[in-house]
UniProtKB/TrEMBL annotation:
Superkingdom to which the source organism belongs: Bacteria
Protein name as it appears in the record: Type III secretion chaperone SycN
Gene3D superfamilies assigned to the protein according to its UniProt record, in alphabetical order: 3.30.1460.10
Length: 130
């Protein structure tokens, strides 16, 4: 088992998910009570993509515009956030905020920091009045 797998398993145990692991495609997804989704995905270049997806019921374009502006203005902070809009086959739209963590940096602490930052970042997008 590689370091990212061990890190994810340890994070899962600490969060109360005993068998949290990457699937055969290198992905892991958690659905939160708030409606948000937390996701992780391994890449071929030894990175882990960490993202939070926020469900959008309306004004997806306005949300995305605010997210792009926030990404531009916060690009010099510790985390470079990549925002995107995703639409699922059922027509639901999600605002995705993603950061990249190298395998060497990927630890339970760094994962918690990334998820906390992304959730606060999306809260700020929601509250922005650009």
């Amino acid at each position: 088992m590689s370091s990212p797998e061990l890190t994810l398993r340890q994070f899962g145990v600490e969060a109360g998910f005993e068998d949290l692991a990457f699937d055969s495609r290198g992905q892991a997804l958690l659905q939160l009570e708030s409606g948000r989704q937390l996701g992780l995905e391994r890449t071929a270049d030894r990175k882990v993509l960490v993202y939070v997806a926020h469900p959008l019921d309306y004004d997806a374009g306005a949300w995305l515009l605010r997210a792009w502006k926030r990404a531009h203005h916060s690009r010099l902070e510790d985390w470079a956030v990549q925002p995107a809009l995703r639409e699922t086959p059922d027509g639901r739209r999600w605002l995705v905020a993603l950061v990249r963590v190298t395998d060497d940096e990927f630890s339970p602490l760094r994962l918690r920091q990334a998820l906390d930052y992304l959730m606060r970042w999306q809260d700020a997008v929601r509250n922005d009045a650009y």
